[in-house]
Design brief:
This protein is globular. It is α/β, with parallel strands linked by helices and 548 residues long. It has an eight-stranded mixed β-sheet. Strands 8-9-10-11-12-18 form a six-stranded mixed β-sheet. Strands 14-15-13-16-17 form a five-stranded parallel β-sheet, with helices on both faces. It is built from 16 helices and 25 strands. The termini are far apart. It binds zinc ion (2 copies). One zinc ion (ZN) binds next to loops.
């Protein structure tokens, strides 16, 4: 049988987060991105983040030739420190993406990673594949689409992109090269679906400046705190430029802000004069109206600098009516409650909070409908697969592709774990591979995460009860009073005594004499559960401890 190109989806499909895709031909596999996602704390209490299940790649590690990264966002690089421990391959990406990755690898104590920085239009050979890095604009500098030449044709992956004709660093989406690639023929296009619901074009990042300028003019006598994503280096650059022009010094606040600013400055992606920056520890020496603090925390993240300021938990900055706080971002769906909580607290402390004015100018990092159409027009792919989106995005992107002239039969909406096979005769679903979420508890992979989460939910809602029961009697042949310990359940002393009396009655009756340890535990668990259910309508976790 002739060999086919296989494209496997380990993440980023039916979700926005933890992107990971592999492409396989014969003995060669290449991987594109390995990201993480932040789970809903209500669904997965205590789980900090999740990474893709890459068992298939681990089992085929000797065939994996390289990992290619499109850009340095967490949903594209966050799982790499884990992945490289299992599959040690060279990693190719922009200097900034690798700089951010290197920082993570340092934290994970991985020192031997083979990081290879690439330039615009650079090509890399990996097994039977040749991968070209094609510049695109996005909400982080150093973003690339990948044009992957395979023995069966070219696969073009846009990565996260928009078409910004006036990016802050002047590095535009390389439409000339994309058009050339299109004219030579593209077998398969995989494209970012995040903003497919939005008509028209995304705004240029440059438009943010005017809105910032307006706020700086309006708040001349205040200390200004601007919160933004640390990785949005172009936004950070614009805030710096605006502050400097308004004769203010800059202080970076928040661990990731300080770290990323440092990495970006070293790489020349961020430029400012060192004398314009003051250490956050020394801001008290600067008058309020001469200072601009650039902070993390746009999404109300609990440990971020802005959230801690709102909770009076950030020693270096005390919020008052002398502060104007600008949130230079829009909420990621799902984070609204956290964000509004922070905004409310900042307002309570007297600060002026600007959060609508800037989000009205929606400067997203992802292509809107007209930009997606332009990509279809330039690349004219034979086959299409929408990626990087929830299911409704993928479906809408499929419909868009049909209006752009791609026959429905040539489009597949992939699902997690799907391996799609492609050749000149069509796309078809092959055998699935394992896929899903590996949960990270702290920074360790959670063993048996299903049970862990079930227990946590149970504890969170219903609490627990421990019954310590001695089955032997004391020297006077009297039963020893059992001990009951509860947490998180509404048990008063009288009810606790009632439970103890019931257990004592069973001891006197000799109920446990004929039972083994497990039987006794089970009996106690059942008996106590029944009582708790009857009285409290609750099903707490019950832990019997038998002593003899
Ligand atoms: Zn992304
Ligand atoms: Zn991105």
């Amino acid at each position: 049988m002739a060999k086919r190109i296989k494209i496997g989806f380990l993440g980023g499909i039916g979700e926005i987060g933890k992107n990971m895709t592999f492409i396989e031909y014969g003995d060669d596999i290449i991987v594109v991105d390995a990201g993480l996602s932040f789970p809903n704390p209500e669904e997965t209490p205590g789980i900090d983040y999740v990474i893709p299940d890459y068992t298939y790649l681990k089992n085929n590690a000797q065939r994996v030739r390289a990992l290619f990264i499109t850009h340095g966002h967490e949903d594209h690089i966050g799982a790499i420190p884990f992945f490289l421990k299992d599959v040690d391959v060279p990693v190719y990406g922009s200097p900034l993406a690798l700089g951010l990755l290197n920082n993570k690898l340092g934290e994970a104590k991985i020192r031997s990673a083979k990081l290879r920085a690439v330039k615009d239009r650079e090509t890399v050979n990996a097994g039977k594949f040749t991968v070209e890095f094609v510049r695109v604009t996005h909400s982080i500098a150093g973003s690339y689409a990948l044009s992957i030449t395979t023995p069966k044709g070219v696969i073009f992956m846009t990565g996260d992109f928009k078409i910004d004709h006036t990016p802050i660093d002047g590095n535009r989406t390389d439409l000339a090269r994309i058009s050339e690639i299109g004219s030579k023929g593209v077998l398969l296009l995989m494209m970012d679906s995040t903003n497919v619901e939005r008509s028209g074009y995304s705004m240029s990042e440059r438009n943010v400046y005017k809105a910032l300028e307006f706020q700086f003019d309006q708040n001349r006598d205040k200390r200004i705190i601007v919160a933004t994503f640390a990785s949005n280096i172009h936004r950070v650059q614009q805030i710096i430029d605006c502050a400097v022009r308004h004769n203010r010094k800059i202080a970076f606040s928040g661990r990731s802000m300080i770290k990323i600013a440092e990495i970006a400055k070293q790489l020349g992606e961020l430029s400012y004069e060192e004398e314009k920056v003051v250490d956050i520890e020394k801001i008290n020496k600067i008058p309020y109206d001469r200072l601009c603090i650039i902070s993390t925390g746009t999404q109300g993240e609990p440990m971020s600098a802005l959230t801690r300021m709102s909770n009076d938990d950030f020693k270096k900055v005390t919020i008052s009516n002398l502060d104007t706080v600008i949130l230079s971002s829009s909420p990621i769906p799902g984070n609204e409650r956290l964000i509004y909580n922070v905004i409310n607290k900042l307002c309570q402390k007297g600060a002026t909070v600007v959060y609508q004015a800037l989000s009205e100018i929606h400067v997203s990092g992802h292509a809107c409908k007209e930009e997606l159409k332009l990509m279809f027009s330039l690349l004219r792919p034979k086959y299409f697969m929408p990626v990087h989106g929830e299911y409704r995005h993928l479906k809408m992107h499929k419909d868009l592709a049909v209006t752009m002239g791609i026959p429905e039969a040539n489009i597949v909406i992939p699902e997690l774990g799907n391996v799609i096979e492609a050749d000149k005769s069509g796309l078809r679903k092959g055998n699935n591979v394992p896929a899903g979420s590996t949960m990270l508890d702290g920074s360790i992979m959670a063993e048996n995460s299903e049970m862990l989460l079930r227990d946590r939910k149970l504890l969170g809602v219903d609490g627990f009860l421990i019954a310590i029961v001695s089955i032997e009697f004391d020297d006077d042949n009297q039963p020893i009073a059992p001990i009951i310990i509860t947490r998180g359940i509404n048990v008063n002393e009288a009810f606790s005594e009632e439970l103890k009396d019931d257990i004592t009655a069973e001891l006197v009756r000799g109920t446990f004499n004929e039972m083994d340890l497990n039987g006794s535990k089970q009996f106690l668990r059942k008996m106590l559960a029944k009582k708790l259910q009857a009285k409290l309508k609750k099903r707490p976790m019950i832990i019997p401890i038998i002593m003899n």
